[in-house]
Amino acid sequence: MNTKIVIPISVIITIVIVIFILTQNEIIEKEISSEINSSSEIQNILNKIKEDKIKNDNSENPYYPKEREWIESGPFMIDRSEYVIGEKIFINIGKLDKNLKGQMIFSKIINNTHSYNYKQIGFDGSKPQQNFYLGFSLNQMRGVCTPDFFVGDWELIFEGTNFESLKFKVINQIIPGMEENYEPVC
Questions:
Q1: What is the pLDDT of residue 182?
Q2: Domain 71-182 maps to which CATH number in 1.10.3470, 3.30.460, 2.40.30, 2.60.40?
């Protein structure tokens, strides 16, 4: 009687083990397959970067990032006085007085009497401050439709302080490989 129970239980245990091993193999195969796809995606990205570099090097006006020059006003600094379209502005904030609060306003100068406030970012000396990058992007809702909008004179205003604004320019050149990001949106 004991063998009648032991044999079916052994068969069931064997079947369960075989099913477990087969499902584990399928899971491992899927993981390997996704890793292979990831590496081919990475290779495609690397190939695009190489193509963009060759295109940049062979262009009439190749892009090479300028050296950082750190323009400052009080505890606020930006890394350059001139940027190309697609280049991010690095904003470095030093130690702020704990009572100092206000807004950093990135403003495009239209003419002597008008400007366009592109972005406002608050700062508060009673809270920890972090350095950050600001990139420009097209936005139909805000009326920023073409990359031409970014070209020209800009200033970074420190509202709520007596600090001088920081002036910078954006020139009419797009970083190679980023042209797709600056196709007109309206």
A1: 95
A2: 2.60.40
Strand partners, 84: 171
Give residue limits of the domains in the chain: 1-62, 71-182
HSE-CB at 158 with a 13 A cutoff on CA atoms is 21
The segments of the chain whose pLDDT lies below 50 read none
Cβ atoms within 10 Å, residue 183: 9
pLDDT digits (tens, 9 = 90+) for 64-97: 888 999 999 999 999 999 999 999 999 999 999 9
Specify the pTM. 0.71
